[in-house]
Predict the structure.
Amino acid sequence: MSSPIRLSAAIMTHPARRARALALKDSLPELSLQVVEDPDPYGAGSCSARTAVLAWGTVAHHATHHLVLQDDAVPVADLRERVLRAVGERPAAAISLYTEWASATSSAVHLAAWLGQPFAEVCDPYTPCIGLVLPAEAARELARARPDVPQDDVMIAGVLRRLGVPEYVTVPNLVQHATEVSLTGNTPMGLRLAACYSTAPHSDTAPVVDARVDLLPCFSRSYGRPYYLERDPGSVSGWSQRSLLETLQRRDVDVAALQRTAARRSAGLHRAEPDLRPDIIISLWITAWLGGAELRRLLGDHAVDPSEVLDRRLGQIALANIGPGIFDQYMLPERLLELSPVLQTFAHAAFTEGVTASGVRDGRFPDHRSLSG
C-alpha cells in the first residue's frame, strides 16, 4: 500500500499583486496556502527565481509534496482533490498544472487529449510553473538553490534535470492563466492561455491509447513556422528540434505539395481577414494538419480508427486553442479574442484533413498524391 500524500502549498507574488494573491488564498481554504512575496521587488530586474526559492522553501516538514501557485493562476474549484489524484498517479514526478497554448509542450497536450492520456510529457527546456507540484525533496532542493538566471521556470528545469525528476503536465490543465499585464516582461508574448483548460471532469476517457510519443509537430514562436521535436535522450531537455523538410522527406511526404495545399486552403481566410499575416495563416494550417496526421499515425499503431476518438471533448478543447495560440503574439488581445472563432474553425478544418487524409495506409503519412486536391 502506498504512503498517504501530505500536501503543503504556497502562492508566490509581488507586493503589487498582494491583494490578488490573498484573494486566491481565500478561494482555496482547503490548501492552507502561504503567501510568499518577492523579497526585493524594486531591485534590479524582476527576478521570479528569487521568489520561487522562498516559495519552495515553505514546504512543510511533514509534507510528501509541495504545490506552488503563482498569483496569476486561475485554478479549477476542486484543485486540491484533483492535484492529490494526479500526484497519486505520478508520485515521483514534477507535475505542472498548466502549459501555455503556444508552447512545445502544448503539442504533447493536444495529442494526449485525443489519446485519452491524463498526462503529457513536458518537452520545453523550461518547467511550466504557474501551478506546479513537486515531491518534497525536490522542493527542498529548490529552496537551497542559488539562482543564476532570473526566470523561475528555467531555474526549476535545471534543478529537476540534475535530480532526474521526470516532468509531466496534467491533461486537462487544472490552472488557467489570468490576463493581467506581465510583471516579468512577457506581455509581448500575448495572453498565453492554457493549452487545454477545463473546469469540469470528463467521462470521455476511453479508449485510452497508451502511445509513446517520440515526434511532435510544433510551432516556433521565434521564427513563425512549424517544426518537429524528436525525442533525443542525448540532449539536455530530452528533445531536439528537427526541420520540417528533413522530417517530412524522411516520411516520404511531398513537402512542396503540402505547402501548395496549405497556400490554397489559407488564401480564403486571408481574403476574409486581411489583417492576419498570410505566412502565419499558412503555418497554422500546416501545424494543425501535421497534428491530425500524427494522431492518425499513432492511432494506426494501435489499430484504432480516428472516428472512435474525434468526438472526445478534451481533444476538441485543445484543438480550439491551436489557432489563437499561434496568433497570440501577432495581434492585440482584443482582436485575437474577436477572431478566435474564425481561427478555431480554420484549424479544425486543417486538423480534420490531416487526420482523415486519403492515401493514409497502415498509419503512414499520406504521400504526394493525397495532397494534390
In short: The first helix runs from residue 18 to 27.
